Amino acid sequence: MKEKRVHIVTMGCQMNVYDSEQMLRHLAPLNYRPTSEPDRADLILLNTCSIREKAEHKVYSFLGRLVRIKRVKPDLIIGVGGCVAQQEGYRLLERASHVDIVFGTFSLGRLASLVQQVEAQKRQIVDIDPREESEPLCVTGPVLETERATAFVTIMQGCDNFCTYCVVPYVRGREISRAPEEIIEETRLLTENGIPEVTLIGQNVNAYGKKNGQGCDFPALLEKVDDIAGLRRIRFTTSHPKDLSDGLIEAFGRLDKLVPHIHLPVQSGSDRVLRRMNRGYTRDFYLEKVAKLRGVQPDISITSDIIVGFPGEQNADFQATLDLVQQVGFDSLFMFKYSDRPNVPAARYADKVPDVVSGERFNSLFEIQTSVTLKKNEALVGTTQEILVDGHSKKSPDQLTGRTACNRVVNFSNGGSTRVEVGQILLVRIVKAFSHSLLGHPVGEGYREDVGENGGLSHAA
Ligand code: 5AD
Ligand code: SF4
Q1: Half-sphere exposure of residue 31, counting CA atoms within 13 Å on the CB side?
Q2: What is the pLDDT of residues 417-449, one digit of tens each?
Q3: What number does the ligand 2 atom closest to the CA of 160 have?
């Protein structure tokens, strides 16, 4: 069979990064191999995100750019998958008539057959139907890309929480957990291929196993993953504060490989706004969880998401958010201006916050958090950190880059003639702090500690 090329563009969250790899697995039997060059592709797939309005705009502007390629190469197949595809269905074809396949989040397992149909019949197809019971949630197989320090492993999909601003339950469906054996097997395969760190991902990993985990909850799953020989670091994301159990908090004190970092989205510091968001906890409840986490692991890094300008957010509510941010001292924050999403309850709330006000609030929060993050980073100057090497820094390619256990980016020069490999763990002394990264120098004898056989980055200094 003739070898064909697929170019995949991934937008949005870690779930989509994982799903794009799933797409490659599904297309391999049709002899599609990945290419990074869209002009050389026989098939271009766009894996989309609809969490905020901006993300959705990006999809249409990207599709606009593909018109030129399709004109020169009429046999090119263009597919749009992910959350925007699920949400828009046929409407997507009305706005972008050069698209051949629209496949939603539930039809990823049918991608190969959809591509075959378009190849044979040259017609447009929309498949946003639910997943068939018989279709597996994810397919495990050979590790497709081994020269990397870290990999995602999906443990659950969907969400039952229905926060009033969020489109996820509509485009990703109800919560469903993967069997623990599958997760362990996939993680073991990654580890055997020299990948020392995994991030267990799901919209709300704390709910893992609540509905169909076969007697294994999230702390129990973490324990099983922690037992995998050769694995060095376990991360997970995202956690919902209301489901953060004592068992999970204790796991931070007990499990060697679990990194001291938790992403715990708070969204707002105002009880009134939290209620209108349907978050299911109060500000005090959140602060209690933070205190418990720090009780078990004093150095734990806590990061969060905050939405400013949620409908009805008054100045006093926003001040409560600023106050919480200062009280907690987050290691870093993802900040968003509220945007209406199709069908979500908050889109129908009348008391929208004007864009200029949201903008001002965003800027104040950004300024405060930047100085908190910088202070936290400065406190690390002079310490020695274990860094997992990711590769060369994009900004300054003569430098290497990696991450601390707490997920801080550290750039460093490999001064000696030693070979440094992706996936290696080095001891690095921190010499300078910036607001988004740290600068360090590898230190001491034996800083070279091999973690796998298939690392692969040669760095000749
Ligand atoms: N507007 C702005 N931010 C949103 N998020 C989710 N939905 C919206 C929305 N409609 C943010 C939340 C969530 C993160 C992934 O995106 O903070 O935690
Ligand atoms: Fe969206 Fe809320 Fe579910 Fe997170 S918990 S995915 S914000 S509905």
Answers
A1: 6
A2: 567 889 999 999 999 999 999 999 998 533 443
A3: 3
